[in-house]
Write a structure and sequence with these properties.
By secondary structure, the protein is of the alpha+beta class. The protein has one domain. The chain contains two helices and two strands. Strand 1 (23-26), helix 2 (35-47) and strand 2 (51-54) form a beta-alpha-beta unit. Helix 1 packs across helix 2. The longest helix has 13 residues, at 35-47. The radius of gyration is 12 Å and the shape is globular.
């Protein structure tokens, strides 16, 4: 069974800001599988001056 914790794009960006992160990276699990979530998160992060890194094997 795969477990996890529900979260929101707002919570991800808030956690990055709280930890003074310069960027958020979307990788390890193929990010195109959760593209809508990653895109929403990236847009919020960008508006707050946080850079985004998107690593994919997709074309």
């Amino acid at each position: 069974m795969i477990t996890g914790e529900p979260t929101t794009p707002q919570a991800v960006v808030a956690a990055a800001r709280q930890r003074d992160c310069a960027s958020i990276s979307y990788t390890y699990t193929e990010p195109t599988v959760f593209f809508e979530f990653a895109c929403d998160t990236a847009e919020l992060a960008h508006r707050q001056g946080i850079k985004n890194i998107f690593v994919t094997n997709g074309t």
